Known about the structure:
Layout: H1 2-16, E1 20-32, E2 37-41, E3 51-54, E4 69-77, E5 80-87
Antiparallel strand pairs: 1-2, 1-4, 2-3, 4-5
Amino acid sequence: MTRIVATVGSVLLIASGAALAADLTGEVQGVDRQKRTIQVTMPGECICNAVTYEVPTTVDMGWLSPGVMVTITYTMTNNVNTVTKLAK
């Protein structure tokens, strides 16, 4: 029994750090080029619900500005949303 509990606990611990992939379409609310982050809301949501996404240097953010609708593919690892693909 102890072995089963330890195995289940190990699996849950590993799963909690696993990357989750997702896609969304939303409106850019803010762009921080120095920190390489963007804030995005889903259509019709309050700006107070904006979610921050980190944009790696491999993804172009030169065309981003507040008000632009974007489609984002991202992963979430350890509560950090990291963009893998960004398009209009």
